[in-house]
Specification:
Layout: H1 3-19, E1 22-27, H2 33-45, E2 48-52, H3 55-62, E3 78-83, H4 88-99, E4 104-110, E5 113-115, H5 117-124, H6 129-170
Antiparallel strand pairs: 1-3, 1-4, 2-3, 4-5
Helix pairs in contact: 1-3, 4-5
Amino acid sequence: MDRAQKGQLVDELGQIFESSGVVVVSHYAGLTVADMQSLRAKASEAGAAVRVAKNRLAKIALEGKSCESISEFLTGMTVLTYSEDPVAAAKVAEDFGKENDNFVILGGAMGENALDRAGVTAVSKMPSRDELIATIAGMLGAPASNIAGAIGAPASNIASILSTVEDKAAA
């Protein structure tokens, strides 16, 4: 890799660190190529991405960034899992780590906040952006259905009362 390619890679990594909602740093020593392909596929399905980069170049890309503190995790064979959604990459990494003992999550960053191992686990348990949107949409729709039910209820109540009065009058 020549100097220009390294410079381009540092720029790409810098963009990843700036634009990602969450970045998770993990060790992947002992994973097979098939395992890494599986991780990449799962990340892609969830809207996340996986990147293996030289630690030295990643540390250079981190200089001056808000998440510079994660450079301490960049030792050994590391892989970055990242996504714009602040939860997707953490969920993918956690789920993959449960399936593969050779995939060890070290920590990460969520914006300016550095995350340790427990922090990544906590982020992975949060609802994703899509789940939150669905919940909010459900909450917005509920009052309308309650109003419709309340408006329709008095008419049915009056009808049943009239029917009861009519039955008593006939008896």
